[in-house]
Amino acid sequence: MTSADSRTFAVRHVQLARAAFAAIAAIMITFSPDHSALVGSAVFSGFAIATGLVLLLSVWLVYPAGRRWPAAALGGVTVVAGMASGLHPLRTVAGYFAIVITWALISGVIELIAGWRGLAGGRTRREIAPGVADARPAAPVGPRSESRDAAVVGAITALLGIALLFVQPAYALDYTIEEASATFTLTGITIGVGLFGGYAAIVAVYLGIAGFSPRPVEPDTAEDFTANAPASTEPTPQKDSA
């Protein structure tokens, strides 16, 4: 079995790949004059399928046994959402909001829980006996920097779903720009697609910085607390000579 130290791919590679796909989605939405449900669903579909495949591949290429469930769950949910968004009958205003909101809430909660567990796991100690805590450092669930990044991205993703819940799909507001002598309409789907584009830009910047940031060395195994224990200074009892 391949050890964690000999793996070709690391967590930073997953983060950089996710950042790249998020950046592509943000650029496509930003520079597209059409923010319709068709365009928004197409961009989200490509983003979700590519991101989900990276996460699923990381289950075998990056994460060791015991730390694979977040990537597997996130990858599965994201690929399913991307495939659903790619279906032409679902590329409607209602379909866009339903798919993106469901994906954002589910995947955001999964990643947030995974990050929170990783941060909390380093502070908990197991019991070697009822009421007696192990004095050795607990084996980490994962590097704290990775857990922090997962918690932040999960919270941002969940906020995207919450924000979209407050957008009315049937909303329409006509406004006129006198300098351009033109009238435009701001619709609910325009706001919804724009929110996803803003989310993608934030995630791209954050994960890009996280991927290029140096990582502190984290201990993988618990340190033997008896190795450095001071020698006993109690005198050795002597037998009485006959």
Task: Give the helix/strand layout.
Elements: H1 11-30, H2 37-61, H3 69-85, H4 93-121, E1 127-129, E2 132-133, H5 144-165, E3 172-177, E4 182-187, H6 188-212
Antiparallel strand pairs: 1-2, 3-4
Q: Quick one: biggest sheet?
A: 2 strands, antiparallel
- The gyration radius over C-alpha positions equals 25 Å
The end-to-end distance, rounded to whole angstroms, is 63 Å
Strands, count: 4
Number of domains: 1
Average of the residue pLDDT scores? 82
How much helical structure, as a percent, in the residues? 55-70%
User: How much of the sequence is in beta strands?
Assistant: 5-15%
Tell the overall outline: elongated
* H/E element order: HHHHEEHEEH
> Spans with pLDDT under 50 lasting ≥5 residues?
1-6, 137-141, 218-233
Can you count the helices?
6
| Strand adjacency order, main sheet | 1-2
What class, by secondary structure content? mainly alpha
Question: How does this model look, in words?
Answer:
The protein has 242 residues and is mainly α. It has one domain. 57% of the residues lie in helices and 7% in strands. It has six helices and four strands. The protein has helices at residues 11-30, 37-61, 69-85, 93-121, 144-165, 188-212; strands spanning 127-129, 132-133, 172-177, 182-187. The strands form two sheets. The protein has a two-stranded antiparallel sheet. Strand 3 and strand 4 form a beta hairpin. It is elongated and about 60 Å long. Residues 1-6, 137-141 and 218-233 have low confidence and may be disordered.
Which key terms come to mind for this protein?
two-stranded antiparallel ribbon, disordered N terminus, 242 residues, mainly alpha
